[in-house]
Specification:
Largest sheet: none
Shape: globular
Distance between the termini: 10 Å
Structural class: mainly alpha
Number of strands: 0
Amino acid sequence: MKAIYWSATSVVSLFLLWSTYTYLFSKATIDGVRALGFPDHFRVELAILKVIGVIVLLTPQISIQMKEWAYAGIGLFFITAIVAHTAHKDPIVITVINLLLIGILVVSNIYLHKLSDM
């Protein structure tokens, strides 16, 4: 069970960290976020919140209640990405990736609770 939890949590965390990097340093991503209609301060805010979410998910000493807030925020990020990219008529693969990440996030959450019940 630990392997499933840490694998799922690691996949989501690595994606969020990669996404944070591109939000801050990739001209293509910065231009893409602007094209979606979001202001620069929102892009930077999302990058900071993603890092905070990763820290909360990966730190074992943080309470489950705090982790639940992180799961909710990260899930909201993925849902917002789906809505924004769909409205922008971006390729469907972006939606598929975000749906896959939501699924992995759900698996991480389920196994967090299974481990805490032990």
